[in-house]
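User: Please predict structures.

Assistant: First:
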Amino acid sequence: RQKLEANIHQTIALYNRELQRWQESNKSQKTDDFINFDPTKISWSDGLKNDFRRAKKIHIEDGEFILSTYRPFTRQWQYYSRRLNERVYQMPQIFPNAVAKNRVIAVTGVGGRSGFACLMVDCLPNLHTLDTGQCFPLKLYESRSRVARNMGDMFAFDDPMDAYTIKDGITDGGLKHFHDAYGTTTISKEDIFYYIYGLLHLSAYRAKYADNLSKELPRIPCIKTAEAFWQLSKAGHALAELHLNYEQIEPYPVTFQNGDPTTGQIDDPVTFYRVIKMRFGKDKDQSTIIYNDNITISDIPLAAYDYQVNGRSAIEWVMDRQLVKTDKASGIVNDANDYANDTMHNPAYPLELLQKVITLSLKTNEYIAQMPELD
């Protein structure tokens, strides 16, 4: 977070300096011929250029620092701002600020290249958390006033949540559709929400409608019996809790070929657990993962790789994101160890996350195997 804040302050300072310089030049040049395009200092989006032409200064208070979902099972700090986030779409109605609580079924967008996938998230997702995805929320936050629609203005309220009316993501018409199908009014909108999440994981549903799911958003049928509805709703709720609370899951008991942390005292945990890039064992043996020069784990069940999200296993998503990588254009270093040390206060977080996602994958497979037949 500290590095992000430093980058954002630098970006805003450069933008405002360039704006002042342009105004003092009497706007004699086109903005594209005038402004500083150094990618190590600022990234000029179309929206930011338009604000520049309208002489709109940026203030750090125009947004806020929040945790977001960057990729599956990967949280990352973000500066959430209409001014510096290009095309926020309807996200301010779903996650309007850092304190708003919500749950969202994210699905791959129409024409996704990696096949259909879905994932429950509870913090602001990136557009590519799932392949150019779309999100279907449990709740919607509707601004109480036109003033509050601008994210920067919401801070005028004593409590930022006072600016919003909370509505259900599922409509009254959707609720009636299910009541009529089963001849009961005991089903709630939340029950339907988790039914949908369960249904979207049902293997037979994905297989039968694979062609449809490759080119359009999912359609939601009513499974034939109320008993099967409740089975899917409960399974969907269990999957949601599993996928949202992945950081609280029990780590899978792997075998440590090297670096077993339970066998001795670790004098320098930050160095011992520092991860640069995980890789599979010899000949790409997926039962073994070389975490770093100190730690190698083995006896990873190959069945854990069966749980796929957006074209790859959940385990591989962790391996792909828990690393150190430098962006060529900006020079910004994305270092997963920063999140482990500064946010989680746990240098072993990347290793433990890997073990937890192994457990999560196996449990997901179990839940899916216990789901009812598609009828």
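Second:
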Amino acid sequence: AGRLRSAVAPDDCVARWGGEEFAVLLRNVATESDLAERAESLRRVVTATPIGKLRLTVSIGAALGSPTATLDSLLDLADSCLYAAKHDGRNRVSLRPSVEPGLPIAGDEPEAVGVARALAFAAGLREGIPEEHADRVAGLAVMIAEQMRLPRQTVLRCRLAGWLHDVGKLAVPEQILTKPGPLDDPEWEIMRTHPVVGEGVVRRIPILTEAGAGVRHHHERYSGGGYPDGLAGTEIPLEARIVAAADAYAAMTTDRPYSAARTPERAAAELVASSGSHLDPDVVAALVCVLGLDGLAADRAA
């Protein structure tokens, strides 16, 4: 900590971030070249002098801020760069994120995945839909996140939220879940509680808590007016925007009691048509791209 403090300006910030991690916020860094130079100076000051016989090393992941970047996205990107620095041999600086998909957070992925699958299975049984729906939403969410080159933590949050997005339906009465026709207003009021209930379930399980925001907000609308909180645009957590598009496509291409399955081409065209209103345009573009339907969807939408 002392060595890091000695290498930053008075108005920069050095913070303890974990058992073996520090976070450093640097002002007046305009380019990636500036950032790489500043980060390398931190690495050198930490490693320059042994402590007794102990020679120190430090791996650094660095991300350049921008006016549109959120704190969460910067942290995810910096952490993915840190993983890349460790993977490439340690004791170095990386400004490029790891490209390995599906990596676990703190070794918790197998247990988290197993619990998420079990909850999704239970919710699917209650609603009378196949387990494959949640699995498909999770798979599509991962494909979208990887197409958007998001950090590994975000990819995992998308995967978990994809499985868990409907877990709150466990608290919705069966006669509403399985009703073959349209819901009336009081029934819709009950149905709209499932994202909040689902978040409450997820937040109570420590290894799943990262998925809470994606579960709560997957029925928000990009243009506003969704539920439960009426968020709009980038106010909606990115993983929720991704799960919303994945869920919409999976639902449209599956036979339901109240609707026949659409073709992939028709579903992709409808996604494009709802881009900017119901769904995030960047997320839709990524989804139709990974489906190989981007050109056809654009033609249909036109």
